[in-house]
Amino acid sequence: MNFLEERILKDGIVKEGNVLKVDSFLNHQMDVALLDEIGKEFHRRFADKQITKVLTIEASGIAIAYAVARCFGVPMVFAKKAKSINIDGDVYTAEVESFTHKNKNMVLVSKRFLSAEDKVLIVDDFLANGCALQGLISITEAAGASVEGIGIAVEKGFQYGGRSIRNLGYHLESLAIVESMDPKNKTVVFREQV
Amino acid sequence: MNFLEERILKDGIVKEGNVLKVDSFLNHQMDVALLDEIGKEFHRRFADKQITKVLTIEASGIAIAYAVARCFGVPMVFAKKAKSINIDGDVYTAEVESFTHKNKNMVLVSKRFLSAEDKVLIVDDFLANGCALQGLISITEAAGASVEGIGIAVEKGFQYGGRSIRNLGYHLESLAIVESMDPKNKTVVFREQV
Q1: What value does the mean pLDDT take over residues B161-169?
Q2: Would you tell me which of A55, A97, B59, B191 could form a disulfide with A131, CB atoms 3.0–4.6 Å apart?
C-alpha cells in the first residue's frame, strides 16, 4: 500500500452515493507535505518523458500540478472554467461535465500556452467518468501537442473513465485506484497495482 | 524593484479598462520558480507570526497558498465557490463579487478546517476592490480564528480594496502595488515600498 492509499484509509470519508471525501487533505484543506510527495511520485513514474508542461483543470488540480511541475522544472497551465474578461479570444476549448457538481462547464486554455512542440503531462486529483480528462486531452491535441502521460491522485476504478482512457492507449498512472467503497462499514478497497 | 515587479514589467500585458494580464506566469500559465519565490517572500514578511493555516480562494490563489504554506509547514485551505455535493452543510459562507468575472459567488469553507485556535494568513494573487479578501476575512472571523496577516501578489493601488483593508487595521503586504497603467504606452507604475 502506498502513501496515498494509507492516507485515504486514515482520513478519507466514505459517503452514500459512491462519494469519497478527501477534503481534509487533498481538495479543500490541503496537506502540503502530501502534495510534495505526490509531485515526487509522478516525477518518478514519468521520469523517462521529456515533459515541457504540466496541464490541469481548476480548481483542486492546481496544487497537484504545481507539485509535479516543480519536480520537472517546467511551467504548469490550468484550464479555466467559464469565460473571463482577462482571457483573449484565442483559446482552445472543451466542454466538460462535472460528476461532483452535476453541471457542464466550458473550459479553456489560451493558445499562447500550448504549442505543437509541447510534451504534456496531464494531472488531476480525481478520475471518475473521465470527462475532465477527455477535455484536457482534446485541448492538448487541438494544440498539436503530445500527451506524454496522465497522472491522477485518486481513480474511481468502478467508473468507466480510467478504462476508456487506457483503452485509447494513453499512459495513465493513478496513485490510488478505488475498486469499491462501503459507506456502511466505512471501508475502501484498492486495486492491487505493481 | 523586487522580483515580482520586474516580472510584471517584463511579461505583464496592460489592456484597456485597467486590466493587467499576468496570465503567462501567475494565473493561467504558472511559473513554479516564481511561485516558490513568492512563498519564500511572504514567509519572510510574516516570519514573526505563529501561522497555523494559510487560507485562499479558488482558483488562482491556490498555487500561491501552497507555495506559502510549504514555507510555514502548515496546511492550506481554499474557499470553494458554489455548492458541491461533496461539502457538508456545516460551512462558513460569504458572498463575493468578482471584478474579473463580473458576477457574484457564494464561497464556503468547511467548519472542520477553521477553528478558534487558528492563526490565519490569507493570501491571493490579486487585490482590486477587495471583495474576495473581505469574504475570506469574514469567514476567518466567523470561525473565531485570527487574521494574522494578508499577503497579496499584485494589488491595484488605484482601486479602494487595499486602502479599506489597511484602514481596518489588518497587516496587508502586497508584493507589487500598481499605482497606474497606461495601455497606450504599455507602461506600469508601481508604488514605492520600503
Answers
A1: 97
A2: A97
Which candidate from B32, B87, B109 shows the least CB-CB separation from A75?
B32
* C-alpha cell recorded at residue A131: 470527462
B28 to chain A: which residues are within 8 Å by CB?
77-78, 80, 87, 109-110, 113
> What ipTM was estimated for this complex?
0.93
Contact check, Cβ <8 Å, B28/A102: no
CATH of B3-190, one of 3.40.50.2020, 1.10.10.10, 3.30.565.10, 3.40.50.720: 3.40.50.2020
pLDDT in tens, A17-34: 989 999 999 999 999 999
| Interface contact A75, partner B, CB < 8 A | yes
Cis check for the bond before B59: say yes or no (omega within 30 of 0).
yes
pLDDT in the model for residue A84 = 56
- pLDDT for res B143: 97
Quickly count: other Cβ atoms within 10 Å of residue A185's Cβ.
Answer: 8
Measuring CA to CA, how many Å separate A43 from each of A72, A90, B11, B72? Answer: 7, 31, 28, 24
